[in-house]
Structure to design on (310 residues):
């Protein structure tokens, strides 16, 4: 698969009519399509203020002047670009699912978590670029493995796709360690998307700490948990040796129906805990299966959660 095929052309056409569901007003240096907290030159009326020498005469409201005898000018909302930061977990545990015929991971196959996360990030990035938002992209494991300078405009699409396509799987994953590196946190307030399975070795408290830092940095955070069908509904039985793909440690386990039910209960508990941590900080959290189509993920789950809008 080449970077040009990360998103099919017909899918990109459908994305062009979407916008990101950010609910905040932003202030930026360049003009875009999103409402800012500042007054400026869009077509959306905001308020009146008294005329002062040097004001643009085109904003003078002669109707108000004829009724009141007082000079007023019209003010409009300034439309500014949103800063969108995309963080894609490229740790070893993400390179799972979509196995080939020999049973080995195939990161170009449907169902592979890393491929699915890259396609989701490419979709969100493309929506933002088509809306004249600014986009920055990062891949991480336990550190920042790669970062893409801020992009703007639809003409930057292939640079984003190439960066995501070329990002290789790394080792152990740690969002808190990666974002603890100098310059890893977003510099401007905006919207941050994190695509990960969130299998965290450092524990849930570390997750809460890094999410608090992101929220404190003026970020509207969206957590997208990507799990494979094998992780959501494991179909295993017998005496097996389970190997941690990041630590290469193994454990002998006798898989029974009771063991599988305990796993499902623990997965549900863990997801509820992540959802609670996110909710307490005003952060969005959604879970997607890597065997979903992009249509189901974007127009179904993300649109249904208000994270993207038609």
């Amino acid at each position: 698969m080449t970077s040009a095929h990360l998103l099919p052309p017909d899918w990109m056409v459908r994305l062009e009519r979407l916008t990101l569901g950010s609910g905040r007003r932003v202030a930026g240096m360049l003009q875009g399509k999103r409402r800012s907290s500042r007054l400026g030159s869009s077509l959306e009326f905001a308020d009146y203020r008294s005329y002062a020498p040097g004001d643009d005469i085109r904003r003078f409201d002669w109707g108000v002047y004829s009724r009141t005898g007082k000079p007023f000018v019209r003010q409009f909302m300034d439309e500014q670009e949103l800063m969108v930061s995309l963080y894609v977990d490229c740790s070893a545990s993400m390179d799972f699912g979509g196995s080939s015929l020999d049973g080995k991971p195939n990161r170009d196959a449907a169902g592979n978590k890393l491929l699915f996360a890259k396609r989701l990030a490419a979709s969100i990035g493309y929506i933002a670029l088509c809306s004249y938002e600014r986009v920055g992209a990062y891949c991480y494991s336990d550190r920042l493995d790669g970062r893409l300078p801020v992009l703007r405009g639809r003409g930057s699409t292939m640079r984003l796709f190439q960066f995501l396509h070329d990002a290789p799987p790394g080792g152990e994953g740690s969002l808190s360690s990666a974002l603890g590196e100098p310059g890893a946190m977003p510099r401007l307030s905006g919207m941050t998307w994190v695509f990960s399975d969130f299998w965290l070795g450092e524990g849930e408290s570390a997750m809460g700490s890094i999410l608090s830092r992101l929220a404190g940095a003026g970020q509207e955070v969206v957590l997208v948990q990507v799990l494979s069908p094998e992780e959501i509904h494991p179909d295993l039985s017998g005496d097996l040796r389970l190997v941690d793909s990041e630590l290469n440690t193994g454990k002998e386990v006798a898989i029974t129906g009771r063991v599988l039910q305990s796993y499902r209960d623990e997965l549900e508990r863990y997801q509820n805990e992540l959802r609670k941590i996110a909710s307490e900080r005003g952060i969005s959290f959604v879970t997607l299966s890597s065997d979903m189509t992009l249509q189901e993920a974007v127009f179904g789950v993300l649109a249904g959660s208000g994270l993207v809008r038609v």
In short: The chain has nine helices and twelve strands. The radius of gyration is 23 Å. The longest strand covers residues 31-50.
